[in-house]
Amino acid sequence: MINIRRVLVATDFSEIADGALDYGRALAEHFGGTLHVLHVADVLQPIAVGVEGYFADVSDLQREVDEAARQQLDACLARKGISAGITVPVVLTSPMVAQTIVDYASEQQIDVVVVGTHGRGGHGQRRRTGGAHGGMPGADGSWPGTGAPCDQAPDGGSD
């Protein structure tokens, strides 16, 4: 039997990531696990100012970016009605988003990582990668959030 205790959803606050958050939440609730929601904030690069090669200190601005990301994550979870009891909201700063997600998942011993994708490979690709409608059909045999049968693409076409 599958035992999923820790689910990680990586979010960039897009509509597609919002769908991944719904799916990750459902997995965590179904298995009685913990939902980790991770946003990787951009690293601001120092910029040269003037002709003398002076580089502006962006550390205060970086703190503001990080705090804004934390507030946006908290607002997203509140809007979705996701309680802090089973949820671990995390904001990390890194220029390497994918590697940061993998490192976090490894460090926290995450069982399942859920991310959204634009599904550029078609609906069959979405099933394998966990795209906008999740990677697996729901318990009732339909695509999560759409009601479309799993043998039919969520847009009504065939897979």
Please provide a brief summary of the model.
This protein is α/β, with parallel strands linked by helices.
Detailed description of the structure:
This protein has a domain at 6-116: HUPs (Rossmann fold). The two termini are 28 Å apart. Helices cover 36% and strands 17% of the residues. The chain contains four helices and six strands; from the N terminus they run βαβββαβαβα. It has a four-stranded parallel β-sheet, with helices on both faces. The protein has a two-stranded antiparallel sheet with strand order 3-4. The chain has helices at residues 15-31, 59-80, 97-107, 123-129, and strands at residues 6-10, 34-41, 48-49, 54-55, 87-93, 112-114. α1 links the parallel β1 (6-10) and β2. The chain is elongated. It is of the alpha/beta class and 159 residues long.
The topology string of helices and strands comes to: EHEEEHEHEH
**Separation of the first and last Cα atoms:** 28 Å
| Average pLDDT | 78
Identify the strand order in the major beta sheet.
Answer: 5-2-1-6
